[in-house]
Specification:
Length: 382
């Protein structure tokens, strides 16, 4: 790439106020009182806070998100409907902890059970669903384990559908964030249940324990958890404008701390960082010279586009360059990776995006190659 082209590319990006950082770049130095924490921009994957995110931990009721994933999947593929009714066993009725208060021997609609799990955190509702879909809670937990591996939850294992304390009921904060993102993206038609603040069943009205739903932050889910071993935890999702932030906290010492710390971290992420679009999908970044090709240049295209998360401070000092060995030899095929866009900012590792050939460029015939070679020897690179 000529110096002029590089300067033009930089000036265009700078004028647009664009910047980028690597999703795995060093995490900003913000402290949290949580034992485990993971804060990530859902669009770009940029990690904004990571504290013990890969440590195996008791997830308590946050593991109910996996239970609902299993139900949503059956609803989506037609094996189950919201109006189906499932029977309440004595085991479900006797289950302790948070309850929806289902009655033994009766049947309950799947939609009511889902709201009982999501809004009321009902352990009894979880068992009704597990037994109805898996035969037994143990068999359903095995299905949860298989699905967890399938969707990339590498640090999770399930022994039950409720999050009840068990040495084999473990998740990581990173896995909970991954699961939350999958719930949001895979089941948009059912995700709205996570934003409900209350549900009444059997004349008993219960409120959602997610503290962010009651603040003006744009929260639309997901799930709290608490046991003596786990402490107080929260898996949350917040949308402001076109940005979605997913936060996982665990190991806090009180419900009050959970509410205050989650709101503080979400506010910091939205205030200090923003998302910037460098290029839209299919947009041409530059033109690169071609060696011995039927066309003198080939467009360099960003196939997937590039949206990145950047601190507002680092945005001002970003650097952008297109990197390739010039000229690029023909033949070329559209979609072939031929270059990369490198973006860097102070305190951040460089971010690289692949650039593809935007068109086929055939190689010149023998006489054309001879002529081009002679011109190069006489006149040099043009």
């Amino acid at each position: 790439m000529t110096h002029r082209r590089l300067r033009n590319a930089l000036s265009i990006l700078a004028a647009a106020g664009l910047a980028a950082v690597l999703a795995s770049a060093p995490v900003s130095a913000i402290e949290t009182t949580a034992r485990e924490a993971f804060l990530v921009d859902a669009t770009t994957g940029r990690v904004l806070l990571d504290k013990n995110s890969d440590v195996s931990m008791p997830p308590a009721s946050m593991s109910k998100i996996m239970t609902t994933y299993m139900v949503f999947e059956r609803l989506k593929d037609g094996r189950l409907s919201l109006d189906d009714e499932l029977p309440v066993s004595e085991k479900a009725w006797r289950m302790g902890g948070s309850k929806m208060f289902v009655e033994v021997g009766k049947t309950v609609r799947v939609e009511d059970l889902l709201r009982g799990v999501i809004v009321q955190s009902g352990n009894d509702a979880c068992i009704v669903l597990a037994e109805g879909l898996g035969g037994t809670e143990e068999a359903f937990a095995e299905e949860m384990n298989r699905k967890a591996r399938e969707i990339g939850l590498t640090g999770s294992s399930f022994a039950n559908a409720t999050g009840w304390p068990d040495p084999n009921q473990r998740m990581t904060a990173r896995d909970l964030a991954t699961l939350a993102k999958r719930i949001i993206e895979d089941f948009p038609e059912y995700y709205h249940y996570y934003a409900e603040t209350e549900f009444t069943y059997g004349g008993i009205r219960q409120m959602n324990r997610n503290p962010l739903l009651y603040k003006s932050l744009g929260a639309d889910g997901l799930k709290t958890g608490h046991t003596e071993e786990a402490g107080y935890g929260l898996t949350a999702s917040v949308v402001q404008g076109e940005r979605r932030i997913i936060l996982v906290l665990n190991g806090l010492d009180s419900r009050k701390a959970r509410g205050e710390e989650s709101a503080r971290l979400i506010g910091w992420a939205m205030r200090e960082y923003d998302n910037y679009t460098l290029f839209k999908p299919g947009e041409t970044v530059d033109q690169a010279p071609v060696w011995l090709g039927e066309a003198a240049n080939v467009p360099l295209v960003m196939p997937e586009g590039a949206t990145v998360t950047l601190s507002r401070k680092a945005r001002r000092d970003m650097r952008v360059k297109v990197v390739y060995d010039a000229p690029i030899p023909a033949p070329l095929r559209a979609g072939q990776e031929v270059a990369k866009l490198v973006v860097a900012a102070p305190g951040e590792e460089p971010l690289e995006f692949p650039l593809m050939a935007g068109a086929d460029v055939e190689r010149l015939g023998i006489f054309g190659r001879i002529t081009a070679s002679l011109e190069y020897l006489v006149f040099g690179a043009q």
